[in-house]
Amino acid sequence: MSDFNEELDARGLNCPLPILRAKKAINGLENGETLKIIATDPGSVKDFEAFCKQTGNELVSTAEDGSEFTFFIKKAG
User: Fold this and answer.
1) Of 44, 62, 63, 70, which is least packed with CB atoms within 10 Å of its CB?
2) pTM, rounded to two decimals
3) Given 13, 15, 17, 45, which residue is catalytic?
4) 15 an active-site residue?
């Protein structure tokens, strides 16, 4: 997916920092806009799934490339 409004580089950060930074970034987006997150913490996969369920935001996609994980989250509107 290449259509996003903002990108967050959370590489090298461990739980809970990727979630906290993503929450702050999403709060700055308009409803329906998409945040791309790149993380290296393997725990972030489950963390972002849980985060989206709790907040109502949509986890559009998750991808793994070696030790990097890419998430696209659409802000609920």
Assistant:
1) 63
2) 0.95
3) 15
4) yes
End-to-end CA distance of the chain: 20
Give the per-residue pLDDT at 45. Answer: 96
- Taking the C-alpha atoms of residue 45 and residue 62, their distance in angstroms, rounded to an integer, is 8
> Can you name the residues that pair with 70 across neighbouring β-strands?
38, 63
Residue for token digits 């996003």?
4
Tell me the per-residue pLDDT of 4-55, one tens digit each, with 9 for 90 and over. 999 999 999 999 999 999 999 999 999 999 999 999 999 999 999 999 999 9
CB 9 within 8 A of CB 40: no
The H or E element that residue 55 is part of is helix 44-55
Residue 43 and residue 29 in contact, taking contact as beta carbons nearer than 8 Å: no
Question: What is the tens place of the pLDDT at every residue in 53-71?
Answer: 999 999 999 999 999 999 9
The closest of 32, 43, 44, 36 to 76, measured between CA atoms, is 32
